[in-house]
Specification:
325 residues; seven-stranded antiparallel sheet; globular; single chain; alpha+beta
Length: 325
């Protein structure tokens, strides 16, 4: 396969016009004000990776009231049970409401695609960035399977028609997903097609599930178990996981990973993340049964005693028992 850097220049210099058009959108949305928290209808135009807004569609000849640059650090997410979605830029959060759920979902989809495209461009332009993994895999989405050249680079999962292809067929920002091993492909849109794929291809499979928008999962089918385990590990490392799953400690670690372990993050000062002589009352990591949870607590107490009790000749037997435990 050609180096990623060779692909990047062509990708940046010759973007497809059709693809660019698909990343443009305009229309009215209701925006929550910044200083004065009230809702106002504004006309929004998304073009060249920038979301601009005016008071009215008739004011487009004037300077926009504001602009939102959708760089690679932006996050676009919808609010459950409403037509409102959020754009978080890292320095400011924007709340926008559409007139209907389909319109809201279309805005979220296009905005997320723009953010992913911008993140991909930045990623491919960095010569020091090398792929973590790359291989031919079978990708299944909406019941349709296709053999693709798949590349994991940074937190982006990218797929091409061929290793020499300059324009990716698509990409997934792994920080907005959770990754799971699946026994069979389940796609409610195309059950019959999925069943045919499942019968024809019983190979090991991984599912990539989006967290923030109601999109279908992407499935990857592997030629063998070893290849699946290798990809499962690396995809899980860079994925955002389910933001509401796991113990409180695991959720804190997940937030730190999303920020690449920022040393200045306040999360490091959370009581669960700091050293304490107090015994824990609940396991830090997820266990599948209460029996395992109880064993984990006992093990922790043994380790804590082993570390804190002074080792001398009279207590050597006690330390041996602790070590055995």
């Amino acid at each position: 396969a050609p180096p990623i850097s060779h692909r990047s220049s062509s990708y940046l210099e010759s973007p497809r016009k059709g693809a660019e058009k698909a990343l443009e959108k305009s229309g009215y949305l209701t925006k929550l004000g910044g200083k004065i928290k009230s809702w106002h209808k504004r006309y929004f135009v998304l073009k060249t990776g920038v979301l601009s807004y005016w008071k009215s569609q008739h004011d487009l000849h004037r300077k926009p009231q504001g602009i939102i640059v959708l760089n690679e650090s932006c996050r676009v997410s919808r609010a459950d049970g409403s037509n409102t979605f959020e754009i978080a830029t890292g320095t400011k959060n924007y709340y926008l409401t559409a007139d209907s759920q389909p319109i809201m979902e279309e805005w979220v989809r296009v905005l997320q695609n723009v953010v992913q495209r911008n993140a991909l461009r930045l990623l491919l332009s960095r010569e020091d960035q090398k792929p973590t993994l790359q291989a031919w895999l079978i990708k299944v989405k909406h019941g349709h399977s296709r053999k693709c050249w798949c590349v994991l680079i940074g937190k982006m999962f990218i797929y091409f028609r061929t290793p020499n292809e300059q324009n990716p067929m698509g990409q997934v920002n792994m920080r907005d997903t959770r990754v799971e091993e699946v026994e069979h492909i389940s796609d409610s849109d195309s059950d019959e097609v999925s069943q045919n794929i499942e019968k024809a291809m019983p190979e090991p499979t991984i599912g990539i599930f989006p967290n923030h928008v109601h999109q279908g999962p992407t499935y990857l089918i592997f030629p063998n178990r070893a290849e699946q385990e290798k990809w499962l590990y690396q995809l899980t490392v860079v994925s955002g996981g389910d933001p509401k799953a796991g113990t409180q400690f695991e959720q804190l670690v997940q937030k730190l990973m999303e920020g690449d372990g920022d040393p200045s993050s306040m999360i490091w000062r959370h009581p669960l993340m700091t050293y304490s002589k107090e015994p824990i009352t609940l396991p830090l990591t997820t266990f599948t049964s209460e029996t395992l949870q109880a064993e984990a607590i006992k093990l922790f107490k043994s380790v804590q005693l082993f570390m804190s009790v002074v080792l001398d000749s009279s207590g050597i037997d006690y330390h041996v028992v602790l070590a055995q435990n």
